[in-house]
Specification:
Elements: H1 13-35, H2 37-55, H3 62-66, H4 92-128, H5 130-144, H6 148-159, E1 166-168, E2 171-173, H7 175-186, H8 190-203, H9 207-214, H10 219-227, H11 232-255, H12 267-272, H13 283-310
Length: about 325
């Protein structure tokens, strides 16, 4: 009788060497990152903010964040309302929790859209070159010539009312959230596309790519399996910094009254009604404002740490 028991596959020296080399490379990057003091501080601050907006939802419900009582409007911070109340008597602490969730969701998903578009355009342009490269780069340059903030304001103005409110995971999301994610994402990919293009232009001449082409591998497999993993460093850094940029962009347009629609809270639209009470009720702008500043600052610190960790010429 033939023994059909699966036998373990022995790894050759080359395979073990490749795995060991990859592990040591990532270990070196982690050591570089954790030697970057400000990056570690930024990571701790960011973790605390994420914990705040996630754990806070177990203490306050969305109904608490949207409940208004004009009898307690513009109350200063107290034991009952640690961050005070706003102009219609809503608890600011609860609103910073749920507003933070929306701001972070917008930041992460917008960055994901931008990274997807930028990586795709840059990869196709850098790998294929020629007419494809020329066409995609002209589109990229045309997008770069358009004032981003102006485009955000115009598109948000005309599109924010087109999508109805959404019910997801037991929460009500304003349709404007989806619009803002898409708008920020499709106006933020151009710089990454140029960075990825330059990486692909240099990597496609490498020996491992030429060997893959000689073996008859498809262009898609070469791009995804061979070149893209070696171009991840700038993509990861750009994605991290893109989250901070998206949070700021949402705050800009929400502050101008064209962002996330009420009753959905975001840190940006909480600041919208606060500028009229800068002196009279500073808690209206201080708490959402400081959360925006800390979040963006910590993400930028983490991005700087990742950039140094992935930079082969870094002396840190």
């Amino acid at each position: 009788m033939t023994d059909t028991t699966a036998q373990p596959v022995a790894l050759g020296d080359d395979d073990l060497g490749s795995i060991t080399k990859e592990r040591s490379l990532w270990q070196m990057r982690l050591r570089r990152f954790f030697r970057h003091r400000m990056a570690v501080i930024g990571l701790i601050i960011l973790a605390c903010i994420v914990l705040y907006v996630l754990a806070g939802s177990f203490v306050y419900s969305e109904a608490d964040a949207n409940y208004n009582d004009t009898g307690i409007r513009l109350q200063s911070p107290s034991t009952e309302h640690p961050f005070g109340t706003d102009t219609v008597g809503r608890d600011i602490l609860a609103r910073t929790i749920y507003g933070g969730q929306i701001s972070l969701i917008i930041g992460v998903l917008s960055a994901l859209v931008a990274v997807t578009l930028g990586t795709t355009v840059g990869a196709l342009s850098g790998y294929y070159g020629g007419l494809i490269d020329s066409a995609l780069m002209r589109i990229t340059e045309a997008m770069l010539s358009i004032p981003t903030l102006l485009l955000l304001l115009v598109m948000a103005k005309f599109m924010s009312n087109e999508i109805p409110d959404l019910e997801l995971f037991g929460r009500t999301f304003s349709g404007s959230v989806v619009v803002i994610i898409l708008i920020i994402g499709i106006t933020s990919w151009m710089y990454l596309a140029r960075i990825v293009r330059s990486s692909f232009l240099s990597l496609k001449e490498s020996e491992f790519v030429l060997a893959a082409e000689a073996l008859g591998m498809s262009n898609r497999r070469i791009i995804v399996a061979h070149i893209l993993p070696n171009a991840l460093a700038p993509i990861i850094v750009a994605a991290t910094l893109g989250v901070a940029g998206a949070i700021l962009s949402e705050a800009y347009i929400s502050f101008l009254g064209m962002g996330v629609r009420p009753p959905t809270a975001s840190w940006g639209n909480m600041l919208e009604g606060a500028y009229r009470y800068i002196g009279e009720a500073p808690w209206l702008w201080f708490f959402p404002g400081i959360l925006v500043v800390l979040t963006v600052m910590s993400i930028n610190f983490v991005g700087d740490g990742l950039r140094d960790a992935f930079d082969p010429y870094s002396i840190r």
